[in-house]
Amino acid sequence: MSEQSASRPVILSCAQATGKLHLGNYLGAVKNWVNLIEDNECFFGIVDMHAITVPYVPAELRQNTLDCLRQYIACGLDPEKCHLFLQSHVIGHAELAWVLGCITPLGKLERMTQFKDKSRKQEEAGSGGFIGSGLLYYPVLMAADILLYNADRVPVGEDQKQHLELTRDIATKFNETYSETFKVPEVDIPKSGARIMSLQNPEAKMSKSDANQNGTLYITDDEKTIRKKIGSAVTDSGSEIRAGEDKPGITNLLNILSAASGKPVDTLEGEFAGKSYADFKAAVADAVVAMLAPIREKYEAIKDDKAYLQGVIKSGGDAAQKRAYKTLSKVMRKAGFVERPR
């Protein structure tokens, strides 16, 4: 990366290693990240340590982490222009989380909406009601992920708003307790980026955990699969192609077509006035296939190149570690720890 990168605004955003990325992940987040890399110094983390807060299979975590990296690169996150790193490879995330956790009220963690929701799901999943303390501590580790890099902007999804508010509270508390150390991050929820719903249940967000996988389009799906899923997408009563609360299925497809084609929804409504649902779905499928084709091609080209992927992980991790150490050394000194002899 250019030597000028140090003078550019710093952007940080992270996501869990969930394996395959779906259309909602791409249009709602990753596509926006790609638009940031030219004018900012960007750190994009795969937060694999968060993945172990619920029951998991170690071999699957390793595979999902690497697959997530491959897909990020395929989507346009060029390692020559941004830093892609694994959370577990950077010293500082867990250390900072411990320091921050010691000034975080227990009650605030117990009131986190996602903690309540995930705890309930764990019980419903028949895991014997086991809830590890890592699930409770998750927001503190997330705060450490953010504050460790003292970023100028931290784009997050709407579902992470409560966690970012806690991060702001923790940063303020640390600054007041010890001295000004952290930038207090603003809540930065990108206005652009479509909210993509399930093709089979347009009242719910598209999700990897959807019981009916025909409702979820993955960015690595082949053309035949994409056309089949869109062709079987749930529509609404009537034949009018327009957006509206009474037409969630068609609204979702219009949003997908708008995101894929770059045309506003109202323009598309005009173009498809009087046309059939079949014609409309075929156009949506054409646009999605065209949009995802270069991503799938890039993914296939790099997926088995272990040396390349290892190089990306190392270079991104080195850059992240360099920035993380600067923050961590300040925190440890201010918290009263004796500096390690060199």
Key words describing this protein structure:
Rossmann fold; single chain; 342 residues; 5% strand; three-stranded parallel beta sheet; Tyrosyl-Transfer RNA Synthetase; mainly alpha
Describe, in plain words, how this protein is organized in 3D.
The structure is a single chain. The protein is mainly α and 342 residues long. The chain has two domains: 3-193 and 305-334, HUPs (Rossmann fold), CATH 3.40.50; 213-300, Orthogonal Bundle (Tyrosyl-Transfer RNA Synthetase), CATH 1.10.240.10. Helices cover 50% and strands 5% of the residues. The protein contains twelve helices and three strands. The protein has helices at residues 23-34, 58-74, 93-101, 106-110, 113-124, 133-147, 161-177, 223-231, 248-261, 265-271, 277-302, 306-334; strands spanning 10-15, 41-46, 83-86. The protein has a three-stranded parallel sheet with strand order 1-2-3. α2 (58-74) links the parallel β2 (41-46) and β3. α3 (93-101) packs parallel to α12 (306-334). The longest helix has 29 residues, at 306-334. The relative contact order is 0.14.
Instruction: Please tally the β strands and state the result.
Output: 3
Low-confidence parts: none
Measured distance between first and last alpha carbons: 29 Å
Whole-number total of structural domains: 2
Structural class: mainly alpha
Largest sheet: 3 strands, parallel
Which range does the strand content fall in? under 5%
CATH-scheme architecture of the largest domain: 3-Layer(aba) Sandwich
Instruction: Spell the H/E element sequence.
Output: EHEHEHHHHHHHHHH
CATH structural class of the largest domain: Alpha Beta
The best one-word shape is globular
Count of DSSP H/I helices: 12
The average pLDDT is 91
Looking at how many chains there are and whether they match, the oligomeric state comes to single chain
CA-based gyration radius: 22 Å
The CATH superfamily of the largest domain is HUPs
Work out the helicity level. Answer: 40-55%
The fold-level CATH name of the largest domain is Rossmann fold
The largest sheet has its strands arranged as 1-2-3
